[in-house]
Structure formats: C-alpha cells, structure tokens
TrEMBL record:
GO function term, MF aspect, one: peptidase activity
Organism: Apodospora peruviana
Keywords: Hydrolase
Record carries keyword Methyltransferase: no
Alphabetized InterPro entries for the sequence: AB_hydrolase_1, AB_hydrolase_fold, Peptidase_S33, Serine_prot/Carboxylest_S33
Family: Belongs to the peptidase S33 family.
Protein name: Alpha/Beta hydrolase protein
Biological processes annotated in GO: proteolysis
Keyword Hydrolase: yes
Pfam families to which the protein is assigned, alphabetical: Abhydrolase_1 (PF00561)
Domain AB hydrolase-1: 74-211
Length: 487
C-alpha cells in the first residue's frame, strides 16, 4: 500500500511570456526529504508550467480565460537518471502537446536541475560515506513519484474534478518513473505515454547488462563498418593514453583521460547520429596527435564534456540502482562484472584494478597494452557505469566510497507493484525500439505484457532518442494508439 501523500507547499511562482506564444510559470515547491520521516527536513523542487498565450481577435471573456488556464496537465518525465529539464521552448514536446489541448509541466527531479541539486558539496556535507549513501538513497524513482503526486495535489486543487488526474510523458528513465507511478498512485493518472521507457521491472542489473552488452557490441561493429579508418585511429589513441605519464592526459576540469574514459563515449552509439558524434571526437584527437603530438585543450574539453558525470553525478552514482527493483537485490557493479567477462572489453581489467576491493588474486589483470588482448578493434562501452569513473571524474571522487556502499546495498524499497500493474486501468501508450541499445527489446516486451491495457508501437527504424530526432512521427504514432480503435 502506497503512503498517503500530502500536497506540496508552493513557495513561489513567477509568470513570463516567451516567444512563440508561450506562457511560462516558474514554480518552486517544498516537499519532505524523506516521506517516511518528514521531521528530517525538506527539499525544494523546481518546475515550469507552460500553456498557450492566447491573443484572439476577439478578447476572451473571463470564463474563457479561466477555462484556458485550467487545461489538463501533461507532465514530462526526463530520461537519466540525473538530468533536469531543458527550457520549455527547446523541448520537442512543447508545441505538439500544447496544440493538443494540454498545459505542460516540466518538473526537475529531486537532486537535478534546480531541485536541490546533488553535487560534491551537498554530498560531503551529509557526513561520512554511509551517511552520504543514506542521503543518496532518497533520490530514486520511488521518491520522485511521491514528489510528483505531492505537486499534482497542489497544482490541481482548484481544478474541476475531471481535470485533477494528469497525463505523463516518460522518455527513457522517465518511462521507468511512469511505471512506478502506475504502481503506487494510479488514481492520479489519466493516461501515460512513454518512449524507450518500458523498464525491465523484474530483472536484475546483471540480467539487464547481459542483454544490453549484446547490442553495444553490435553498435561497435556498425561503427567500425562506417568508419573503418578508426580501427587504427582508436588503437593509436589507446596506446598514447596508456603510455602517458600520470595515468593519462589531464583534462581541463581536473580529471584524467584514461582508456576507460575514452572508450565510454560509446554511450552515444544508441542515439540517432551517435556514430558520427563519436567519430568526430576520435578524428579530432587523432588530428591533434598527427599535428602536435599531444591533445589540445579544445579537444580535451570536448571529450571531457561528452559524458557529464561531473555536472550530473546522479547519472553515475545511482544508475545501477534503477535496476534494484525490490529488497534483496543488489547491483554490486553489475556492468563491470558482466563486461569483464566479455572478450571485447579487456580494458575493463586494466582500468578497474586500481581499486583493490574489486581485484582478485585469482583473476590477474593483463599487464601489457589492452589493445593486444583482443583480436579486434577496441570496443566502446554503452550506458554502463564503472568504478573507474569514480577515479577519473573529479566531481565523483569524493563520492567513491558512498558509491561502493550503494553498489552493495540490498535493502531498497520496491519500485513496482506487479499485481497492481496486472489490473491497471490507466491507458498506457508506449513507443519501443527494436534496436534500442539502452532498453533491451525482449525485456521491454515482457514488461508490456505485464501491464494491463498497454499498447505498444514497435519499430526498427528509430533509436532511443527518437522523440527528439523524429518528434512528429513518434507523437503521431502515440496518439494514433490513443485515438484509434482496433475493433
């Protein structure tokens, strides 16, 4: 049984008009830090509500103005975990959804954006590593959903009863959050749209990574087919970094460019244009070595900002915990453990053994260059977080011990209620991508079959970020499922 939630306290709201007939209200709310122990203090949440700024030829009457301001809400749930929302005018959903009669709410998850963001200072201030870990455990989807429900109760208090439930649009991790919402507070929901977000609701992190590594290897093969010159280029970069004093070139922000950090840029392979993005980075670094014998500051800055763990640390520190769906399940650095067993990823040995707690005397790491340990080009990783990231990102270093505690943690609250999902009455419309590198299609199909009333549009013509790359087509398909009948 989900806990009863009280309305969030609205602290402030400021309205603005933006170009393109957008009426935006900036909102700050106050919610409990820990819903089970509200006496422990509060967090601030930030969001922006967006509706059309109507300027009809004939001025609207007061009742018409009030009706326009009380349009039903659609809440956008961002991917991640660990990212705040972009400006409303930059979101691909804003205008399509406004044209369909919604007003939108872009709510930054707790710990992200302007919602009491997580950073080194806030984590260190919590105390020792165990206290830091206890604090970070409060930033998962279960509490994100409680925040959303508290905000819903606040914002819809004056609306007609039929307008109090709101709609969700969950992209990627936002779909995971949507499934938790459906599990805990379905009465607050009118409908749910999701793209690339059918979470593996009863699969462990290890099971997830055994599936997604297969797609990562396929995307590496596609990369080297498209850019065969990068076989030698990546070899050259890896060898240069391995032979560099200090473990690798120093990055402008204080981190280190290790082999593992370089090959982690394969995270982009799962998005439209991702192969080209990675090639541009490899080409730039290779050109530096060819012309100057070193990496230039501009190139190092480009590689440094490619995976934003320094500015969005939740993405690293809580990533595997999204697969810890119930008590008794621990991640225990699943991506590292699974990847280390796979022949295309010998570099995981070399970069990971700096942490003795993950080394084993019975599994000695290779001592020579990683490029000699696999009969093929160096393989980039995907959406995987490794212990090495907590050594090469300066913002993550102070959180390293807390990260190890969280990796071993197995007393997580349940994220999903399978029984509730099996009797779900909220319409669910999902776009699912057969070649998704981040959300395995077979696990997604299993989840879709467990959610009563879930309609799914599947395609092998789009990737995970299709809602941004092919906005009109994706939204059109979602609304066809909503508006068209099968029988």
């Amino acid at each position: 049984m989900a806990a009863v939630i009280r309305p969030a306290r609205l602290i402030s709201q400021t309205a603005h008009l933006l170009p393109g007939q957008l009426h935006v209200t900036e909102l700050f709310f106050e919610v409990p830090k820990n819903y089970s122990r509200p006496e422990l203090g509060t967090l601030k949440l930030f969001g922006r509500s967006v509706r059309r700024h109507e300027r009809p030829i004939v001025p609207m009457s007061r009742p018409e103005q009030e009706a326009a301001s009380k349009s039903p809400y659609l809440v956008y749930l961002e991917g991640g975990p660990g990212f705040g929302n972009r400006e409303p005018q930059d979101s691909p959903l804003t205008r399509p959804m406004l044209s369909r009669g919604y007003q939108l709410l872009f709510l930054d998850y707790r710990g992200t954006g302007l919602s009491t963001p997580i950073n080194t200072e806030t984590i260190v201030a919590q105390g020792d590593p165990q206290e830091q870990a206890n604090y970070l455990k409060l930033f998962r989807a279960d509490n994100i959903v409680r925040d959303c429900e508290a905000v819903r109760l606040c914002l819809t208090a004056g609306l007609p009863e039929e307008n109090k439930p709101w709609s969700l649009f969950g992209q990627s991790f936002g779909g995971f959050v949507s499934l938790t919402y459906l599990s805990k507070y379905p009465k607050g929901l009118r409908e749910v749209f999701m793209t690339g977000g059918l979470a593996p609701i009863n699969s462990t992190a290890e099971e997830v990574y055994r599936a997604t590594y297969k797609k990562v290897i396929e995307r590496n093969e596609a990369y080297y087919r498209k850019f065969p010159e990068d076989v030698n280029n990546v070899y050259t970069l890896v060898e240069y970094i391995e032979n560099h004093e200090g473990g690798g070139p120093q990055l402008p922000g204080g981190g280190v460019l290790t082999v593992g950090r370089l090959l982690s840029v394969g995270l982009s392979f799962g998005a439209h244009g991702g192969l080209d993005t990675v090639h541009a980075l490899i080409l730039r670094l290779t050109a530096d070595l060819d012309q100057f014998g070193v990496f230039t500051r501009g190139s190092l800055a480009a590689i440094e900002g490619h995976i934003p763990f320094d500015t969005n640390p939740i993405y690293a520190i809580l990533h595997e915990s999204i697969y810890c769906y119930k008590k008794g399940v621990a991640s225990n650095w699943a991506a590292y453990r699974v990847g280390k067993e796979l022949p295309p990823f010998p570099w995981l040995w070399k970069d990971s053994t700096a942490n003795s707690s993950l080394s084993s005397s019975s599994n000695s790491p290779p001592t020579s260059l990683v490029v000699t340990k696999f009969d093929g080009p160096p393989c980039f990783s995907g959406e995987m977080v490794y212990p090495l990231h907590f050594q090469s990102y300066p913002e993550l270093r102070p959180m390293e011990q807390a990260a190890h505690i969280l990796a071993k943690c197995n007393d997580w609250d349940e994220l999903y209620d399978e029984e509730q999902l099996s009797r779900n009455e909220v319409p669910v419309y999902a776009a699912s991508f057969i070649d998704d590198m981040y959300v395995d299609i077979e696990l997604a199909r299993m989840t879709a079959g467990m959610v009563k009333g879930c309609k799914v549009f599947e395609t092998n013509m789009m990737y995970h970020n299709a809602v941004r790359a092919h906005t009109d087509e994706v939204i059109s398909q979602l609304f066809k499922m909503r508006d068209d009948t099968i029988d």
